Amino acid sequence: MRLDFSVAVHSLLYLDENRPRKIASRELATSLQLNAVMIRNILSVLHKQGYIEGFVGKNGGYQLIKDLAEINVGELYDLTIPPTISYARFITGDSKGTQTTDETDISVNISQTLTDLFTLADEDYRKFYHQFTMTDLKRDLHAHGFFRQLINPK
Amino acid sequence: MRLDFSVAVHSLLYLDENRPRKIASRELATSLQLNAVMIRNILSVLHKQGYIEGFVGKNGGYQLIKDLAEINVGELYDLTIPPTISYARFITGDSKGTQTTDETDISVNISQTLTDLFTLADEDYRKFYHQFTMTDLKRDLHAHGFFRQLINPK
């Protein structure tokens, strides 16, 4: 779900701005306006991938390990929103080939053609995000329009 | 919904293969494996845009007016899947600015940054589809792999 990506981006930006303070998931939850459980799932993924460190106890919380410039936005996207494995619910026709009512065989063959189209489009879509690092997003956060300017320079 | 795009693509390919026969929405429904009402909604859009013609009566049905080579896949995509107006459900933070719990203002500002990111990514995504005409999809339908080859030539 695209929200997982936003949770990751928001959390990393928050940890960065608050360096070197350790941030509890409850504090992040307030900033993200989401419940802490949902955020912890994503923090766990970011932890496994070596983006952040977590400390337990009284002065516990999360800290960002990497520099924002080292964090590719596309990698975050791939991590939090894995490619769709099946496009079945977006595809028309008789992909199981159970009927032969369609003389032109479009009904049976359209599934593979549309799956290829959607898969290639998704690969292309991900390339867009891979052009940027978290530093670009941070700049836009402090000066809206930076990002639009970066993509569509006058 | 992405299914609307598939309905349009499938219908146009079916009408093309069956030229000059007039095709009833019931026959299309069998090929698409969807109910006829859903298909008629999309056919109505295609009719308004001048892709197809509809005839009522005993020998009624739909006919493709345009040549597949004249039908851009991206135009079909834009027609059936309009750009998202609001990304609210994919965005974290306090976009209404009702709270001031977040000293860094990330919570208030992240909404616009993520909206810009998603909007620009979507514009880029649509460009992918605009590279092709329905003729490309027809070729792939008859020889799977054509499309992959077109995008990623060896």
From TrEMBL, chains A, B:
InterPro entries: Tscrpt_reg_Rrf2, WH-like_DNA-bd_sf, WH_DNA-bd_sf
GO cellular component: cytosol
A single MF term (Gene Ontology): DNA-binding transcription factor activity
Domain of life: Bacteria
Name used for this protein in its record: Transcriptional regulator, BadM/Rrf2 family
Species in which this protein is naturally found: Levilactobacillus brevis (strain ATCC 367 / BCRC 12310 / CIP 105137 / JCM 1170 / LMG 11437 / NCIMB 947 / NCTC 947) (Lactobacillus brevis)
